[in-house]
Design brief:
Distance between the termini: 32 Å
Shape: globular
Largest sheet: 8 strands, parallel
Order of helices and strands: EEEEEEEEEEEEEEEHHH
Structural class: alpha/beta
Length: 223
């Protein structure tokens, strides 16, 4: 996995897996298939993507972020956001389908703990003429303690010959799941920690990236 010192624009034209630590606004151009990006955003920033080949992107954040993605050339974007906060933040994700037969799958998972106030604003755009495009959104925020949450799932679809879906959930973990785990001899605290880790680790993550997420989750578990 590569760790890159970023400037204001970055081009990826070679397949591979990359881990980027972002602390300022940036434009990222995806020009090759078989790229996975693992992002850690450390400040309140804006990220602009120009996606000309299919790509998978993961992002861990504890701050305000705005992500804009333009999808071209029959490409596919799989975007996973993991957001954890004990303060007031907004994560905004805007997906623009700029060509026919483009696909976006956006999954946002968040945890609001202590006095955290987390908002997801997820917006998908398919313009007239962008036939056979697919725009999917799935957003969930788990509220802990006094945490608050809001999800705004928006689909702006002008083309009839397209597919668009969204789902959203805010609230606590399902008590039935906690009860089920406890019936298997797992303590309530351990059950909660298992659900917490499973909820945020959407797919298998590289070890060093998983360690970053674990260090953030540890603060939640020790609250």
């Amino acid at each position: 996995m590569n760790k890159i010192l970023l400037d204001s624009t970055k081009n990826f034209n070679k397949e591979g897996t990359y881990k980027l630590e972002l602390d300022k606004d940036i434009t990222i151009n995806i020009e090759s298939d078989n790229i996975k990006l693992y992002l850690v955003t450390k400040n309140d920033i804006k990220i602009n993507f120009n996606i000309k080949k299919s790509v998978t992107i993961y992002n861990i954040t504890t701050n305000n972020i705005k992500m804009n993605a333009n999808i071209y050339n029959n490409s596919k974007l799989d975007f996973y956001l993991m957001s954890i906060t004990d303060k007031k933040i907004t994560n905004e994700v805007n997906i623009y389908h700029q060509n026919k037969e483009t696909i976006s799958n956006v999954t946002c998972h968040g945890i609001s703990y202590l006095k955290g106030d987390l908002k997801f604003s997820v917006n998908g755009y398919i313009k007239k003429g962008m036939i056979n495009s697919v725009c999917n959104q799935s957003s969930r925020i788990i509220n802990l303690d006094e945490g608050k949450s809001l999800i705004e799932p928006n689909l702006f679809i002008e083309e009839f010959d397209s597919i668009a879906n969204h789902s959203a959930y805010t609230g606590p973990f399902d008590e039935k799941l906690l009860f089920y785990l406890e019936t298997k001899g797992i303590s309530k605290k351990e059950s909660f920690n298992l659900l917490l880790n499973g909820f945020m680790k959407l797919e298998e993550l590289p070890k060093d990236y998983e360690n970053i997420l674990d260090s953030i989750l540890d603060k939640v578990m020790r609250r």
